[in-house]
# Entry
Amino acid sequence: MLYRENKTIVIILLFTLIISCNKHKTYNTEEINNIRDNSVSMSLSIIGEKNYWKIYNQLDDSIKNWQDNQLKRYNEDTTKIKSQIDSVLCFNEKGNKMITTRLMSGNGSDEDVMDAIICYYGVKINNQWYFFSASTMYLPRKYYQEDIHTPLSFEKMKELAAKHIYRGYLMKNPLWKEQSGVEEYVINERFFADLTSVAWCVDCVTQEQWDAAYLEWVKDPVLPNL
# Structure
């Protein structure tokens, strides 16, 4: 657990450093749309549209179940906190790993001045998908707008998720030279490297060991403890 907690702290600090240097910064709309559109298009080619939205709904149902059962960090006041799963799901080439985000508007406090983007991982084991949360990107509103007491819009958070998270999903195909029949982008498998990081499981080597570790984590979907 110490490895995971330290790793999460480092990620949060890095995100905070990045966004602190970009007060009220705006991003290229065309670039953001391309990142999102290309990510969805690639995932659809891997998993298919029907399965894409089936998995999206399974994650949504899982989160609602965690809320109904008042699991740790899922006992939020939904009358004050608004959230939604981003529509961008990133799948690896084998279609057995997935990364997406949940957009969180506020923490329920009237004095709240921060929103958040939570990364979610999905793994497919024996034809069943399992989900758990990972790192959190905290978003102090003062870096993005003047009114710090009004939550960031979901559209703004989608923009930030694309710029800071999804942009690592695809990379330029080294074989692509505007050749007919050659895709411009390919999946960057390193984007999923955290799912097999020693920060999660020091002794895991085989797929069976990793699957066993994943099944342990999903018993408490709020790992690491954020």
